[in-house]
Write a structure and sequence with these properties.
CATH architecture of the largest domain: 2-Layer Sandwich
Number of strands: 34
Strand order of the largest sheet: 5-6-7-3-4-12
Number of domains: 5
Shape: flat
CATH topology of the largest domain: Heat Shock Protein 90
Oligomer: single chain
Structural class: alpha+beta
Helix content: 25-40%
Distance between the termini: 52 Å
Radius of gyration: 35 Å
CATH superfamily of the largest domain: Histidine kinase-like ATPase, C-terminal domain
């Protein structure tokens, strides 16, 4: 089967054979493809061994050449543009009808990034003109008209067979144990039918299933084709190429032998995902070698994705309806329990309601050694043994099994009454349980061959020899109930939490009150201890800092005295309970001056002053004290380089929003222990003021955001703004301001450029895809700067550049042509950024 990584093959796989063949000979049709890996500066590092047949060059002659020595410049420009749109670790893009060589044929290209390399796979463009979007839309419309799960899967298999032309298309669903079942099939007449057959988990190993989650589509056009190796096998750093996302990568010889044993000459697999995890596959088989175009395969992949989302929506609708019914019963039961002052012992009065919440054949209740049974259940003695077993398991949450006898041997004696159980713990240790039971459901499972048949030794070892027998093998399953669904598990877990909440609230109120009083006392002691330690440490720091800067004993005494007095004034403001509204700006400045001394000028304040009501003033004083102290101890103000920017404004709902940002200090690590100081920062404002507090420990410095409701705010009388700090870093001088213009004909690239410019400080970004639109925007409102893509399809952005130059507006070019792009003589000196570019490249270009 396919391996997840070509650089981590199983012992039976030869690394060089893991790279998918570039040539398939299909009767009289030759399907040609090639694979090349290039580094980010576009130097050829590897290619498939057969490129001589196409380029007339050996791989060795290509290595180290710039890509423009191998491919057409226009093709490289197209590839660079599409590479810019790749987002995420497993992103793949496809380009149809690209002329890779001047005057050459058209090719379809698949493009993705593998480590530090860019992988391009090409194959001749099909002569068909397929509109995959319109075709798949029509197919999905037919799917949406079906009702029920089985008709949906049958119609999906039929549509996929019509799209791909394969002899057989199966919808293959995985079970939780990894085994699979064919639940729908569309097959050519004259072939055996596989509908309803089960396959053991070993037929599609775990690593292959993981690969199907990353790569939606997989084709084997000819199981007898000979693969071509990627040359060289390792890159200049000695690492093999990871081809997990390759469309042409070869598969394990084990899987090829498996397909031959089934009489399959070509196959196509399209993943079906649910919540990002592999749910099943469209498995397409053909009795002869068959290759379909990349565009048609892309349509099959798109159909697989749409089917996945439609299937997920259908399943969610069914689950939502079941959850709604269970929730209604659950809420009615909880209302009765809470209003009646019920304790654990009286739960038995509600067994009828409890049994209706989850579909079951019987229910048992164990509370303080008392047993209540209803419906199809074990006997009281058998139930006692079952409870002892449950107490030995990890029963802090709902526990379910559809085969009790497998985990609890004595249960084999009562499988006809209770084969499966769902146990809900309803108390703390010693545990009491509410247990739902289901009767045995005997069923016949038809396997494609004996699933427990011993493996035979072969050329690939005993472990990996594929099965050769696919004759139906039937097994009758006893001792198992219908499985418990995810919805039923969630319902049981919700019931567990609610029962604990209601019952514990009614039975443990006195204990909770006593414990709460003890916790409040401990919190008060911790607060006092924390404050005293902080003050002592702070005074010691003041003395130490003053000693290093004092010239004489008198100077030292005066300096220490003034700083101790500043500390006293700050704590008077925090602890006083009879003052009026106080200034936010003065509060921050006072905290900075009292605790930071000479470092206070590195706290930069920005915002219109506002007055805080006493309660908010006291709460914010505690929070700002902790933020300042932590910054001086561990953050940006603990050395001579960092700074703190504190900015505030009133939002649309008149809330006060305070932004705290540290920069230039040492690398920040989130605290490993959450002390009282952290609790003050994160919980004081939400608890005391009903506001918000959000603290993020970024590597570059702590960032925080606090909001205070308008009821605690008053407008401050106008007074002169304090001058901004004179120390400005070099990075800040390079930040943008004003509105910027992006001229780019690719929407996704334009959106990404907009994000980059906004992150660099631009107030707004306008985008245009044509020179006419760009010139209109410039005439309407000249921008502060611009980024121009050189090629806009049928025109260039040079007229826009000349207009910007006339107006004296700075700009930079963006191009996918690399070094081959030549700036017109009258625009010499304009910075150029090459695609694909990131925010750092853009910053450097605009700064120059």
């Amino acid at each position: 089967m396919p391996q997840i990584r070509a650089d981590q093959p199983a012992p039976d796989i030869d690394l060089t054979s893991c790279d998918r063949e570039a040539i398939h000979v299909l009767g009289s049709v030759q399907a040609f493809g090639f694979l090349v890996a290039v580094s980010p500066d576009w130097i050829v590092t590897r290619a498939s061994a057969n490129v001589r047949a196409w380029l007339g060059l050996s791989v060795e002659a290509m290595l180290g050449l710039p890509l423009d020595a191998v491919l057409d410049g226009e093709a490289i420009h197209t590839l660079r543009g599409h590479l810019q749109t790749l987002r995420g670790p497993d992103a793949v893009d496809r380009i149809f009808g690209v002329r890779l060589l001047p005057g050459g044929d058209l090719f379809d290209v698949a493009l993705h990034v593998s480590g530090s390399s860019i992988v391009m796979e090409a194959e001749p463009s099909a002569t068909e003109h397929l509109s995959a979007g319109n075709l798949v839309r029509s197919m999905v419309t037919r799917l949406r008209q079906t009702e029920g799960f089985e008709p949906l899967c049958r119609e999906a298999a039929r549509q996929m067979r019509a799209l791909t032309g394969f002899d057989r298309v199966m919808v293959y669903r995985f079970a939780p144990d990894g085994s699979g079942e064919v639940i729908a099939e569309a097959v050519r007449s004259g072939l055996d039918r596989y509908l309803g057959l089960h396959y053991p988990a070993s037929d599609i190993p775990k690593q292959a299933r993981a690969l199907y989650e990353r790569n939606w589509l997989r084709i084997i056009a000819d199981v007898d084709a000979v693969g071509d190796a990627v040359v060289p096998a390792r890159d200049p750093e000695g690492e093999p190429l990871d081809l997990s996302l390759s469309t042409l990568r070869t598969v394990s010889p084990i899987h090829l032998e498996y397909l031959r044993n089934m009489g399959v000459a070509a196959s196509l697999s399209v993943s079906i995902l649910r919540n990002g995890r592999l749910w099943g596959l469209f498995a397409c088989h053909h009795t002869e070698a068959r290759h379909i175009s990349l565009e048609r395969r892309t349509g099959a992949e798109l159909f697989g994705q749409m089917f996945s989302w439609l299937l997920e929506a259908r399943e969610r609708e069914a689950e939502a309806a079941q959850e709604a019914r269970s929730r209604e019963l659950h809420n009615r039961l909880m209302g009765a329990l809470a209003s009646g002052g019920t304790n654990l012992e009286s739960l038995s009065d509600f067994l009828d309601d409890l049994s209706a919440i989850v579909a079951c054949d019987g229910v048992g209740l164990w509370v303080n050694g008392e047993i209540t049974l209803q419906g199809a259940t074990p006997t009281a003695e058998e139930f006692t043994g079952l409870v002892r077993f449950l107490n030995r398991t990890a029963a802090s949450k709902a526990y379910a099994t559809d085969e009790i006898g497998r985990v609890h041997e004595p249960a084999r004696d009562f499988t006809e009454r209770a084969a499966g159980m769902l146990a809900v713990p309803v108390s703390r240790t010693p545990r009491d349980f509410l247990v739902y039971f289901r009767r045995e459901v005997s069923r016949t499972v038809t396997w494609a061959g004996n699933p427990v048949k011993p493996a035979n030794p072969g050329p690939n070892g005993v472990r990996l020899t594929p099965r050769k027998s696919f004759e139906a093998w039937r097994e009758t399953v006893h001792g198992r109930s219908l499985p418990w669904s995810d919805v039923e598990m969630r319902t049981a877990e919700a019931l567990r939490i609610t029962l604990l909440e209601v019952i514990l609230r009614l039975t443990d109120s006195a204990e909770k009150e006593r414990k709460g009083a003890q916790e409040r006392q401990e919190l008060l002691i911790a607060e006092l201890n924390h404050r005293v330690r902080n003050i002592l440490n702070l005074i010691r720091g003041v003395v130490a800092q003053s000693k290093s800067s004092a010239g004489s004993v008198e100077d030292f005494a005066a300096t220490v005295g003034s700083r101790i007095q500043a500390l006293a004034r700050a704590h008077d403001q925090i602890t006083s309970s009879n003052w009026g509204p106080g200034s936010l700006r003065d509060l921050i400045a006072l905290e900075a001056g009292a605790y930071l001394g000479a470092k206070a000028d590195r706290v930069i304040l920005d915002g219109t002053d506002v007055l805080l009501e006493p309660q908010a003033f006291s709460t914010l004083a505690l929070v700002l004290h902790e933020m300042m102290t932590n910054s001086a101890k561990y953050g940006a103000l603990c050395d001579s380089l960092g700074r703190v920017d504190v900015r505030w404004e009133r939002d649309a709902l008149d809330y006060l929003v305070i932004h705290w940002r540290e920069s230039g200090g040492p690398t920040v690590r989130a605290p490993t222990r959450r002390g009282f100081g952290t609790a003050i920062i994160e919980r004081s404002i939400p608890y005391e003021l009903k506001g918000e507090a959000d603290v993020r420990y970024e590597l570059s410095g702590v960032e925080a955001r606090f909001t205070v409701p308008p009821g605690f705010l008053r407008a401050a009388p106008p007074k002169p703004q304090r001058p901004a700090a004179s120390a400005i870093t070099s990075e800040q001088t390079q930040r943008l301001s004003g509105a910027m213009l992006v001229v780019e004909d690719n929407m996704i690239i334009a959106l990404e450029a907009e994000e980059f410019l906004l992150s660099l400080g631009a107030d707004a970004v306008d985008t245009a895809s044509t020179t006419r639109e760009a010139l209109r925007l410039i005439d309407a409102a000249p921008p502060a700067g611009a980024l121009l893509d050189v090629n806009l399809g049928s025109e260039t952005s040079v007229p826009v550049a000349r207009r910007l130059a006339e107006l004296g507006i700075p700009y930079a070019f963006a191009t996918g042509y690399g070094d081959s792009f030549r700036i017109p003589a009258d625009l010499a000196g304009v910075p150029v950024v090459k695609k694909p570019y990131g925010v750092d490249e853009l910053r450097r270009a605009l700064a120059s």
